[in-house]
Structures are given as structure tokens and as C-alpha cells.
Amino acid sequence: MELFSPLPLAEWRDTKETLHRFEQLIGKIRLTSSPRRNHWWHVPFHVTGRGITTRPMGQSDGNPVFTIDFDFVDHQLVVTTLDGTAVSFPLLGQSVASFREHTLATLADLGVHAEIPHPEPFDLPDSSRPFSRDTEHATYDPEHANRYWQILSQVALVLEEFAAGFSGKSSAVHHFWHTFDIAHTRFSGRHVEQSPQTDPVTREAYSEEVTSFGFWFGDEKLPEPAFYAYAAPEPPGLEQERLSPSQARWAAQNGGHLALLMYDDARAQPDPRSAVLDFYGSAYRAAAVRADWDVDYFASPHGVTDRQLLSPHG
Q: What's the domain of life for this entry (predicted)?
């Protein structure tokens, strides 16, 4: 199977917009049915061998333990409880409104009482329209949905490989439903004082100094898929640092800078996987050195932290 198959945003925009809202609805159920974790780590989806999963949830909220999975092979939403009972319905042919109705009915049949806080899209153009009234978004192309999951899986493994080189506090590789990206974040351990006006979501996400790395599938602001990296807070002069490969660049964004390697530029490299790893590595070194992180202390080559094991005779 080709590494990083083509997926231009224009080719699957309608499916992406529908699927994004499906995932936001399920993500909001995850938000209220799982214990809160630092930096919102309880919120994202994780990649599976057939799609993406909420991971098990419930129990602490009085519900039975249950998991919701998007199956992008058979194109179903699957709800499973701890006793092995599984109920599913097709993703194809659903509007956001009918998807919501089927989801809540399926959960109720399994004895799960689900809450959807703020039952409308988050940070999307139709954020004032409840999911229950969205019959506009109803496109689901199985081929594009499957390719989205394949690319998500391949990028996840590249991010896992990159994540192995850092021994400090770091996030899992996870898929955020609100921004529709997959990301991995590293932390220096330094607390960040923020403005009292900063919203609660941002305050928790960036309460500590970070460098973050990921991939998204394109949106209105950047209408093509791209690998990205950034630092928060951004150290002065970061945009002056060189990135690798040569096609990578710094782009101004929200008063700061975003390191970008466009997906098609990575695909065109002789070794796309190595090119993406080089990109993430160059962005990390640029931010870490500028922000005075102890790069040697945090290093764990090939996932190894024991210096004796790293020695030729270890």
C-alpha cells in the first residue's frame, strides 16, 4: 500500500465536513463520559486497526463501560459494552441529524445515558446550528473515508517513531475531533502564566511550555493537507531557524509562526517517511534551542533512556 496516498481537500471536502461533525458529536460524548486528564488528554480519539476509537469510558459517571468506534473498513459506527454486546449502524447515508438520532438510540438500547454538552459544532461555520437540525451535511464517500483512516494510521506511526526520541513529559499520539488533526506534544516542565482573558480551553492546553507536532487534512485557512509544528509560547527569533527538508517553511499564524511541510511536498521526496521525521526533528531542535530546553537530557535515541544500553558495549 502506498505511503501517504493523495487526498486533495477539494476531492473529499463534502465527506470531510460530514465526518468532522460526526466525530465532534461522538467526541462530546467522550468529553462527558471519561475522567478529565491534564491538557485535555481524555478528549481525543486514538487510531485502531479499522478506524478510530473513543477508548473505554463510562463507569465513573454511572454508565456501563462502553466504547464507540468508527469502523472505516465496513463503514459503521460500533458501540460495544464491557459484557461484549455490540450494536452498529451504517455511516453511509446519514446526515448529521440522523447520525445523532441513531447514536443516541443505540446507546439507550445498551443502557447508556449519553450527554452531549453544547450540542452543536465547535469552531465550525455552522456552530450555532444544533446537530439535531443539520440535514445539510450528509455526504459520506466510503473510499475517501477509508483513505483518510489509512493516512491517519501512517502518520500516527511516523509520529510514534518521532515521539520515541523524547523522554520527558509528552502526550500520546492522538486525533483531536475539534480541529480534525493528529498530534503529539512535548513539554519542558515550565509553567506558563497566561492572561486572565485567555479562554479555559487554551489555558489548560498551554498551561506549560510546549512544542507540538502534527498533521491535518486541510481547511478553509490552509486548503491542502500539511505536516506542522509550533512552539507555545514561541521563543523570539524562531522563524529565523532553518527547517528540513528545503521545501519546509515558516508561516505567520495568529501573531506567531507555524512550521509547515505540505503533504504533497513530503510525498514527492525520495523517502517521504524520513523527510517527515527530518521536518519534525528540525522544528523541535529550532524551538528547543531557542527556548533553552535541555535537549541532551530529554533525548532518548530509539526510545532508550539508559545510557549504558546506548553504549557500544551495553
A: Bacteria
The order of strands in the sheet holding 46-47 is: 46-47, 51-53, 66-71, 76-81, 86-90
Give the span between the Cα atoms of 140 and 147, in whole angstroms. 12
Question: What's 78-116 look like in SS3?
Answer: EEEECCCCEEEEECCCCCHHHHHHHHHHHHHHCCCCCCC
Contact 184, 162 (CB under 8 A): yes
pLDDT digits (tens, 9 = 90+) for 142-197: 999 999 999 999 999 999 999 999 999 999 999 999 999 999 999 999 999 888 88
Q: Which helix (H) or strand (E) holds 49?
A: none
Q: Provide the pLDDT for residue 240.
A: 96
Query: What are the distances in angstroms from CA 50 to CA 46, 148, 149, 166?
Result: 11, 12, 8, 28
Q: In what order do the strands lie in the sheet with 256-262?
A: 174-176, 181-191, 208-216, 226-232, 256-262, 249-253
Task: Return the residue matching grid coordinates 485535555.
Answer: 40
Cβ atoms of 284 and 213 within 8 Å: the answer is yes
For the chain, how big is the Rg over CA atoms in Å? 20
Residue type for 76, please?
Answer: Q
Q: At what angle do helices 142-163 and 9-32 cross, to 10 degrees?
A: 70
C-alpha distances (whole Å) from 115 to each of 18, 25, 100, 224, 305 are 21, 10, 12, 34, 43
pLDDT in tens, 80-91: 999 999 999 999
Q: How far is it, in rounded angstroms, from Cα 257 to Cα 217? A: 19
Smallest CA-to-CA distance from 98 within 27, 44, 32, 18 is with 18
Task: Please count the other Cβ atoms lying within 10 Å of the Cβ belonging to residue 143.
Answer: 9
Q: Please provide the distance, in angstroms rounded to a whole number, between the alpha carbons at the two ends of the chain.
A: 37
Positions of the chain with pLDDT lower than 70, given as ranges = 311-314
Whole-model pTM over 0.85: yes
